[in-house]
Design brief:
With 235 residues, the protein is α+β, with helices and mostly antiparallel strands. It has a single domain, classed as CNF1/YfiH-like putative cysteine hydrolases, CATH 3.60.140.10. The chain is built from seven helices and 15 strands. The chain has a six-stranded mixed β-sheet. Helix 4 runs parallel beside helix 6. The protein is globular, with a radius of gyration of 17 Å.
């Protein structure tokens, strides 16, 4: 289930159930100033996103945003942020061990299995068991609004991703609708997450005016702030 928190961000049950984890998927109007005011004790970790599969581990806030599309930490009071405007944000947390991640999943990162790599890094650096991990998938462009070409489909097939996340667009040879969320859920399950531990918003950024969409609004789109961090209290 998706809930609206403070009217400006969404939360997902599978993450909200972890008492020491704080997360959200920003609507329009949610900004860094609001986030910092609400969680004053947290240090912000943001990225210079480059539509890649590159991940970093942090144990403190960097002095400048690193070039990457995913970030993992096992340290409390770090607020990990990824920004989106049609791409899929994924937030991961382990309720048993310290470990959270924020992932920016565009089609390029998805084709390179960035979600699967996030799980592996949590496992390697934080000692997380994939079977315990919870994943929240925020709003992204839905398949009915996301038309891509043959080049994207081939990139997914080279990445050993399922062909059924694509559907041919009627009357437009070489064009397909892409279910970006489904492609990433496939990766999370392949990496060992239980289906019941994966929550998704099912909201299409292109269809909803309160969400940021580059395909709809181009340079006027803005970016949604999606965030996750944890305190050192276990509730």
């Amino acid at each position: 289930m998706v809930k609206i928190a403070a009217k400006l961000c969404l939360t997902i049950d599978v993450l909200e159930e972890i008492s020491f984890v704080f997360h959200g998927f920003g609507l329009k109007g949610w900004n860094l100033e609001i986030l910092q005011r609400r969680w004053k004790v947290f240090h912000i970790v943001s990225l210079r996103q480059v539509h890649s599969d590159k991940f970093i581990y942090v144990d403190q806030a960097p002095s400048s945003p690193p070039r990457a599309d995913g970030v993992v930490t096992d340290q409390p009071f770090l607020m990990l942020i990824v920004k989106t405007a049609d791409c899929l944000p994924i937030l991961l947390a382990d309720p048993k061990r310290k470990g959270v991640a924020a992932v920016h999943c565009g089609w390029r990162g998805t084709a390179q299995r960035i979600a699967e790599k996030a799980v592996r890094l949590l496992e390697e650096r934080c000692g997380c068991d994939p079977r315990s991990l919870r994943a929240g998938l925020g709003p992204c462009i839905g398949p009915s609004c996301y038309e891509v070409g043959e080049d994207v489909r081939q990139a997914f097939l080279r990445g050993a991703l399922p062909a059924d996340v694509f559907r041919p667009v009627a009357g437009r040879p070489g064009k397909y609708s892409l279910d970006l969320a489904a492609a990433n859920i496939f990766q999370l399950k392949r990496a060992g997450l239980q289906e019941s531990h994966i929550g998704r918003s099912d909201l299409c950024t292109h269809c909803r005016p309160d969400l940021c969409s580059f395909r709809r609004d181009s340079s006027r789109a803005g970016r949604a702030l999606n965030f996750i961090g944890f305190s050192d209290s276990r509730g």
